[in-house]
Amino acid sequence: MTLSEQIIWGSVYLGICFLIEIALLTWCMQIIRVMSIKLEKSKRFVTIASPLCIALIFIVMIHTFQVWLWAIVWVFGDVLADWNSALYFSLVTFTTLGYGDIVLGEGLRIFGAFASVTGLLAFGLSTAFLVAVMSRVLQEESIL
Description:
Number of domains: 1
Protein name: Ion channel
Strand content: under 5%
Keywords: Membrane, Transmembrane, Transmembrane helix
Domain Potassium channel: 64-135
InterPro entries: K_chnl_dom (IPR013099)
Radius of gyration: 18 Å
Helix content: over 70%
CATH topology: Helix Hairpins
Structural class: mainly alpha
Pfam families: Ion_trans_2
Shape: elongated
């Protein structure tokens, strides 16, 4: 892949991951809102813990989905031969651990770096989302 192709395709997959994350976090907010109304008269523990649990479930699901998306790219792009290697590389790259035991060829290094950027930005967005959910829940419960 040429440098410009790596940048273009890396940006495309990064964009797809963020569209997925935004859509699923928006869905999560709607579920939390509806659930909060239904649980208004529940015990305090339930009204605090439920939105946080739902948010965490969605965040884990979103990140897992994105790791799988990058693994699909590695397998169907004939970059990595098997699913085990592709998932491992995808997860290690997405979390920016980068062990270095699986390394992409020179023609894919920039493209592979986009998986790391995706992970960095996804973790940042998810952290901000979780903080916002926690702040709102705690404020509504008059804890803050």
